[in-house]
Fold this protein.
Amino acid sequence: MSFLRTNSGRFTVLVMLFGLLLTVVLISLRFGSLELSYREILHALFFENSGINYQIICNIRLPRVLLGALVGSSLAVSGAILQGIMRNALASPGIIGVSAGGGLAGIVVMLILPQFGTLLIPAAFCGSLGTALLVYLLSWKRGISPVRLILAGVAVSTMLGAFSSTILLLNAEKAGGVLDFAIGSLAARSWQQIFQAGPYMAIGLCMALFLSHRLNILSLGDEVATGLGIRVERTRLLLIATAALLASAAVSVAG
């Protein structure tokens, strides 16, 4: 266990996990309505630029697998940030309403304002960030308490979920087109969604990496963080914005 606490040990673990990720991606590319061998997959990836195997692998399966990895990493990092802020292992983007806010904004754009469909990701981000700020303000009382933050988040998340259900009921004739988005799905996703949401996810992941040391200090408690020179409220708000960016980017493409 002491080896894992060293830099070389952590690097070794990261390399092993990255290798495992590549293995899972390769396995995922094999299965579908047409099962392909690993030789056919590698040939389609590196030596073909046309043909049915190339179309299946490069234009259908690969973007969905990569998008699934990006969505999963974004939600995982967003959850880790919120767990550090709240010092609660059960915290997640859904707990404080970030996912619900982005989902509501997405449903509004798709059903009520379809002419602004190209602004789905910015709208989802604004919805998530607005929800995070609302929860932050509702839980403020001479500072932020993690318990108040969670309670306010659960209440706001439930309220926004009710709003989303109401909009779907009032637009039942058009709701079928956003059913996958409301439930959550990677079906029919392509490179376009990766190009749209990828930059937002990359920015959010870079911000999370840059702020990771502050998050570690903040998780020790506000008094300790203040004593070590961290501006607690400013840092907490910046971390919440980062979590909102990651969650909203994931929600905008996966529902």
Q: What stands out?
A: The chain has one domain: 65-254. The radius of gyration is 20 Å. Residues 52-86 form the longest helix (35 residues).
